[in-house]
Amino acid sequence: MELPLVSIIIPTYNRAALISETLDSLVSQTYSNWECIIVDDLSSDNTLQVVSEYCEKDGRFRVYKRPEENKKGPSSCRNFGLEKANGLFIQFLDSDDFLAPSKLEQSVHEINSSHRTGKEICISNFQMFILTAADATAPYCHLHSGLFTFENILYKWEELFTIPIHCGFFSVELFQDFRFPEELQAKEDWIMWITLSKNNAIVSFIDEPLALYRKNPESITMKSDALADQIKVCHYLKNILTESQFDKLLFKIISNYHKTNMELKLKIEAMKKSYGYKLERLIQKGFKRLGLLN
Prior knowledge:
Glycosyltransferase 2-like domain-containing protein, Spore Coat Polysaccharide Biosynthesis Protein SpsA, Chain A, alpha/beta, Nucleotide-diphossugar_trans, 8 strands, 2 domains
């Protein structure tokens, strides 16, 4: 029996130094019937050259440039990749992350072990790393099969857990009516998980670290403008949630920001009462009296 084709979609931008390791993790897969669609977001380094070498050596790799008329960003690139995909299953992967060698094989087996409906998602656990997969450490959150409900994904996201996008393995039918919101530069994966769970996706879980997530301080998911991103996301979610769901979510977001601000205020007050802070202020006053500080 012919193995079902898996489409792996990788958006990339200026990852010449890292993407080879990502692509090598695909070459090492124990499951062979896959295609990899790499969508370059008009990189300014030699990412295209690096990727093109893989395409020449292995016909399962294909690379495209994001059309200039399309919006910039991972959402646009993933949507372009979905249009090019031929597989029965979709595996998303960022261009600085890895898949464990058996990720595709175990995911296909998990979904095919029951009657397939076209709404399946297989989620695996993950580990984190900075430089190499050999240095992988425990994940930043504890994933388990009881987490993946619509309510938890909507109301507990970031507070209790998140799911790195490459932990997921998706039936292609789930994307017939969904595309990533291209106006968002962050949290677009959360929108995906909300939408698919709201549409009653059937989720199974493999409690093994089959995805490896790179801790990258420069990545967009690590940037600090969280409030602006949250406002944009809320504007988008208002159109897909019921009024009561949206009101509950908005209340929770406001409560969380209030709690965070109060905790920060208490930390600042405690710092001001500390001996080190008082000493620093005393030194500053002395320098000002001596005319050494403005």
